[in-house]
Design goal:
Layout lengths: L11 E4 L15 H6 L1 H7 L3 E4 L27 H13 L3 E6 L9 H8 L11 E2 L20 E4 L4 E4 L14 H16 L4 E4 L2 H4 L16 H13 L4 E4 L8 H5 L8 E3 L1 H13 L3 H9 L8 E4 L7 E2 L5 H11 L6 E2 L3 E2 L3 H4 L4 H12 L4 E5 L55 H5 L5 H13 L2 H5 L1 E5 L6 E8 L2 E8 L5 E5 L10 E4 L5 E3 L6 E5 L4 E6 L1 H7 L4
Parallel strand pairs: 1-2, 1-14, 2-3, 3-7, 7-8, 8-9, 9-10, 10-14
Antiparallel strand pairs: 4-6, 5-6, 11-13, 12-13, 15-16, 16-17, 17-22, 18-21, 19-20, 19-22
Length: 555
């Protein structure tokens, strides 16, 4: 049934258990604390919660170096606490997605420890080995400037092992049928504990062929994606995979599948990078082109739309000139940049805390084609701590109150302290104060989330970019089941006026009702609407208004 595809009109909220809420006062967030904050998330209006890795881990890479795929790190609680959390989320109508990290493991994982200790170990072929250091060892590194090689000598194994990421994260040999079977077992385990799907980490690397003899561009094994999809359909029909795959548009259908038989969702990195260039350069045209290039996809598949995530802002798909424009605007200092390709800052500081630009950007995000994914703390405009290393600067604890440690913990010495100084310190930026301020970013975000859920055309409909005659203005019309929504954004600092043809036939196209204010616009005798937008202004219009909707027969 078309209405069963819940992810098409969802609002996803990403968080880290360890930095969200500490219930037991040990300075580390936990599942008991997260469960206490579910009412907050329900009130915010999100419909799904995506958890970053919480499994046992040495935490040398933010938990993405997993040491046991079937457990909960004791610092966060127990499997019982996890199930209590998923049950409480279900009671509130919230779905739970978790990270599925299966491209690599921690070097402390029992599989790797067994594999390195004995060439006859049943786990030896679960990893990728070479007796000689491959000639490609200095190529394909994910973290240039920090990572020096993709092949590291292990004295105990007396061989080199392959690691696309850090040397403490050996890659799994995903072409091994036993490894593939284990991945399906991991998925099935968490599904039984109440999970509604997975954000699959580093998908292109998961399905790429690996080995000392692999040279040149990676060769993907797309049948794996079909195996993952089929398994989920058998175990839990409405469970999904949201793929992290920073790929070119020509490969989109390889990941979605021509018959929608692979990934349910993918993050749209093309639109993300084009959005930041549009915001930095006040030029909507490259963004409109990115929307058009990534438009083809099966009806049941969906894009994940985001501004910032838990990693750096990756600008690798932009031209050198475009990338420099974004660097100059949002990350001009070297310490704000990372891996020679991105910016490691939180979103609000990137825009100097300007409420007009922040709200414009999030209004734009919520009206781009796909499902919006919001990062914890961005609903209150949290900042970053650039004194922390690499990506950690944007992973500080949630700021709940102006009290000590931002209300995150009772401990005086949390493992990762909240931001306690400057304009983004918890004394100035926190949930409690913003709840009581009708004009706060939090209350604005809550109203926009509600509005987004009431405009399913954006999640389901066919998108068309309209000609505005203004480079800084983006106008997108969504059509679905005889209804239309028009979203107009001025990315420039100055006010502008334009005459716009909605492209919808009369009588519907003659009336626009602003969903944000209730104001009506009547078309002139040529069928065009004269629209005024302030600098960084925006409108969400229902085309045809309420009268037209009431006259339509239900579909």
């Amino acid at each position: 049934m078309i209405n069963d595809l819940w992810y098409k009109n969802a609002v996803i909220y990403c968080l880290s258990v360890g930095t969200f809420m500490d219930a037991d006062g040990d300075g580390i967030g936990d599942f008991a604390g997260l469960e206490r904050r579910l009412d907050y998330l329900q009130g915010l209006g999100v419909t799904a919660v995506w958890l970053m890795p919480f499994q046992p881990s040495p935490k040398r890479d933010g938990g993405y170096d997993i040491a046991d795929h079937y457990g909960v790190d004791p610092a966060y609680g127990s499997l019982g606490d996890f199930v209590a959390f998923t049950h409480a989320a279900k009671q509130r109508g919230l779905r739970v997605l978790i990270d599925l990290v299966v491209n690599h493991t921690s070097d402390q994982h029992r599989w790797f420890q067994s594999a390195r200790s004995d060439p006859d170990s049943p786990y030896r072929d679960w990893y990728v080995w070479s007796k000689e250091k491959p000639a490609t060892a200095s190529e394909g590194m994910v973290f240039p400037g920090v990572q020096k090689t993709t092949w590291t000598w292990d004295a105990q194994a007396k061989a080199y092992y392959f690691h696309r990421f850090f040397d403490f994260q050996p890659d799994l040999n995903t072409a091994n049928p036993a490894v593939l079977a284990e991945i399906l077992k991991i998925m099935g385990f968490w599904i039984e504990l109440g999970v509604s799907g997975f954000r699959m980490d580093a998908v292109p690397f998961v399905i790429a062929r690996k080995g000392a003899d692999v040279a040149g561009a990676p060769t993907e094994q797309f049948d794996m994606l079909r195996d993952f999809r089929e398994f989920l359909q058998w175990r839990k029909g409405d469970a999904i995979i949201l793929a992290e795959a920073n790929i070119l548009p020509k490969q989109d259908l390889d990941y979605f599948g021509d018959d929608a038989d692979r990934m349910h969702m993918m993050f749209n990195f093309q639109i993300n990078q084009a959005t930041f260039y549009a915001l930095a350069g006040h030029d909507a045209r490259p963004l409109a082109k990115a929307i058009e290039r990534t438009k083809p996809r099966p009806l049941s598949c969906q894009w994940g739309i985001f501004l910032r995530n838990h990693d750096e802002l990756d600008l690798g798909r932009l031209t050198e000139k475009q990338r420099q424009t974004v660097f100059e605007e949002f990350g001009p200092e070297k310490g704000m940049q990372l891996y020679d390709r991105g910016i490691r800052r939180r979103f609000a500081p990137m825009l100097d805390g300007d409420p007009r630009r922040i709200r414009l950007a999030y209004s734009l995000m919520f009206t781009l084609p796909g499902t919006p994914v919001l990062r914890y703390g961005d609903e209150i405009g949290m900042g970053d701590d650039l004194s922390l290393k690499e990506r950690d600067c944007a992973r500080t604890p949630m700021q709940w109150t102006p009290e000590a440690q931002g209300g995150f913990t009772r401990s005086a010495t949390p493992t990762m302290p909240p931001i306690d100084h400057g304009p983004y310190g918890y004394a100035h930026v926190n949930v409690a104060d913003q709840r009581h301020d009708p004009g706060s970013l939090l209350n604005w975000m809550q109203s926009v989330i509600r509005l987004r859920k009431e405009a399913p055309e954006i999640g389901w409909g066919d998108v068309t970019a309209l000609e505005t005659g203004r480079p800084a203005v983006l106008a997108l019309r969504y059509d679905w089941r005889g209804n239309a929504v028009l979203c107009v954004h001025n990315l420039g600092p100055g006010p502008t006026e334009l005459a716009l043809d909605t492209g919808v036939a009369a009588p519907d196209g003659l009336v626009l009702v602003d969903l944000l204010t209730g104001a009506r616009s009547e078309a002139d005798e040529d069928g065009r609407h004269c629209l005024y937008l302030e600098g960084y202004g925006y409108h969400w219009f229902r085309v045809g208004g309420l009268d037209a909707l009431l006259k339509r027969k239900p579909t």
